[in-house]
Amino acid sequence: MNSKRLVRTALVLCLFALLIASQAFADDRINMPPYHFGGNTLFCESETGCTLLNMTGQFLWNWPQADISAAFETLDQTGENTLVGEGQGTYGAMWLWVIPTSETNGNKTLCLQGFDEWGKENEMCFDVTGDWIYKPAPLPNPLVPVVVADCSMWSLGNVVALKTDSSTMGDIIAIDTAAGTVTVDPFFGATYTAGCDKVRRGKS
Fold first, then answer.
1. 89-118: per-residue pLDDT in tens?
2. What is the dihedral of CA 11, 14, 16, 20, to 10 degrees?
3. Which residues contact 95 (CB under 8 A, 6 or more apart)?
4. What is the pTM of this model?
5. Maximum C-alpha span of the chain
6. What does the H/E/C string look like for 153-175?
7. CA distance 65 to 47
8. Which residues 6+ apart lie within 8 Å of 171 measured at CB?
9. Alpha carbon of 86 to those of 67, 94, 164: distances in Å?
10. Which residue from 113, 132, 131 is spatially nearest to 123, judged by alpha carbons?
């Protein structure tokens, strides 16, 4: 009888601990809907940096706080987009960048790029305060129309690469003008789809 009670008590304590942990993570969640990375969720806090979990809560990747701080120092010196690092999501590579901002309140800006389960590249940007409080990515204004990237400069067979990763160079094999995307068959690696404004001309 006592053993059954102990098991029940242990189960209740485990569930309570999971609830507390999930609530703590929820407070640090950056990508609320509609920012979609195939179920992957980004959590950021000042001690550990930014951590990527899959849709079941399993660990995928971490960008340490020290790397984020170093990237911001480089940004302050150069004024140019600086890569914190490349990670691995459920559906491919993911990149965390620090970028210049027009904010005058001392906040800085990070951007996450990655792919969803359909191979579509998604991106979101969010702020971090001077005392390292990470802000959730702001929700898009529903009154502002979505602007589709212009694809008129691209043709089938053009050699392009992602602006953020020159190693993705390959031939355009499809163009979706309605979605503003191109599909690229890279010289190395798997076929990918990206916004027409996210690729640059490469060398054949």
1. 999 999 999 998 876 678 899 999 999 888
2. -170
3. 83, 84, 85, 86, 87, 112, 113, 114, 164, 165
4. 0.57
5. 75
6. CCCCCCEEEECCEEEEEEEEEEE
7. 6
8. 157, 158, 159, 184, 185
9. 11, 6, 10
10. 113
Q: Token pair 């190395």 is at which residue?
A: 188
pLDDT digits (tens, 9 = 90+) for 6-30: 445 444 334 333 333 333 444 578 8
- Six-digit token pair at 7? 């098991």
For the chain, which residues make up each domain, given as ranges? Answer: 28-128, 159-201
Strand intervals (E) in the chain = 41-45, 49-53, 59-63, 82-89, 92-99, 108-115, 121-128, 159-162, 165-176, 181-186, 192-195, 199-201
CB atoms within 10 A of CB 80: 10
Report residue 149 as tokens: 């990237």
Structure token digits, residue 37: 């990375």
Structure tokens at 127: 């702020």
Dihedral over alpha carbons 11, 17, 21, 23 (to 10 degrees): 90
Structure tokens belonging to residue 58: 């399993």
